[in-house]
Amino acid sequence: MPASAAEKALHWSVAAAVAVLAASGAVLYVPALSEAVGQRFWVRAAHLAGAAALALAPPAAAALRWPEVRAVERELSWWSAADAAWFLRPWRVLAGERVDLPPPEGRFNGGQRLFAALVATALAVLLATGIPMYWWSWFAAETVARSRDVHVLTTLALVALVAGHVYLGIERVGSPHGGIASGGASERAVRPDPNR
């Protein structure tokens, strides 16, 4: 079952917001970039706009297309024995076993479900830690400092996750299972490559 229009719109809205946040956050955090770009006010405004878009995109999608969004949420939240087999496969391969994965029960495999859970958690942490950083005068200095540390570490983890996601999407372009250019990520989940 291919991705719905609402699912694609939500995916690319979140992706665009994350791209704006990563780029503007790098400029705000790295002194050399901040000096090279200048315009700190506008960079900060772009960062806040990206955060607002990120906070508003999921509720807006749910309000406008609830059945489709709920169906995707159910698919991503439901874990099965096939997901456990997916996670155990690398260890079994390392042990010298020949492992054929059962097809996922649904559109997503265990890795895709884990990715979605980690990204959702990271985005929630980033929004929560961004509040004391923005309204710093309302919080103790220690709270602001700890929030900044968690914000930066979570950003680095999220960038690594997204980089892996983009790599895997691009790597499949042109394969029979599709990639981001062909919109075949969900088809890849239904018909996994046995050589992977």
Commentary on this structure:
There is one protein chain. This protein has 196 residues and is mainly alpha-helical. The protein has two domains: 1-77; 83-196, Up-down Bundle (Fumarate Reductase Cytochrome B subunit). The protein has eight helices and no strands. It is globular, with a radius of gyration of 19 Å. It starts with a helix and ends in a 6-residue tail after the last helix. Residues 180-196 have low confidence and may be disordered.
List the helices and strands and how they pair.
Blueprint: H1 5-29, H2 31-37, H3 40-64, H4 66-77, H5 81-94, H6 110-134, H7 141-171, H8 185-190
Helix pairs in contact: 1-2, 1-3, 3-4, 6-7
Précis, in short:
This protein is 74% helix and 0% strand. It has 8 helices and no strands.
Relevant terms:
8 helices, mainly alpha, Fumarate Reductase Cytochrome B subunit, 74% helix, 196 residues
The CATH class of the largest domain turns out to be Mainly Alpha
Specify the CATH homologous superfamily of the largest domain. Transmembrane di-heme cytochromes, Chain C
Whole-number total of structural domains: 2
- In DSSP terms (H or I, runs of 4 or more residues), the helix count works out at 8
**What general form does the structure show?**
globular
User: Kindly state the mean pLDDT as a whole number?
Assistant: 82
Spatial gap, N to C terminus? 22 Å
